[in-house]
Amino acid sequence: QVQLVESGGGLVPPGGSLRLSCTASGRALNGYTITWFRQAPGNEREFVAGTFRSGSNLHYANSVKGRFTLSRDNAKNTVYLQMNNLKAEDTAIYYCAADRQLILSCLRLPSQYDYWGQGTQVFVSS
Q1: pLDDT tens digits for 27-60?
Q2: 3-class secondary-structure state, position 90
């Protein structure tokens, strides 16, 4: 079993930055695909950014490319999402998810992940 805990959310003005953390316990994250999703009220959960297995293979949604950066520290069992130049449309609950068996073509599908955190709220507003 893998337990995931997100942190780092909050209220920021447009153009601001936040760094989200997803820390795992129970298992080492080596070999796991770790992905950030987000869900705004009334919307489906959507893919934000993912690191496939070893961590060198990074993927981003077009809406965040160039603004968000994903990184992982396997020694700390933590994955980070650095979010810069935040926009109002980035407002959502952000979740991290993990899976060991996921294939790359399913990276962006929330239904394919076995483990989820509880989420952290990001609110972008002036």
Answers
A1: 888 889 999 999 999 999 999 999 988 667 899 9
A2: helix
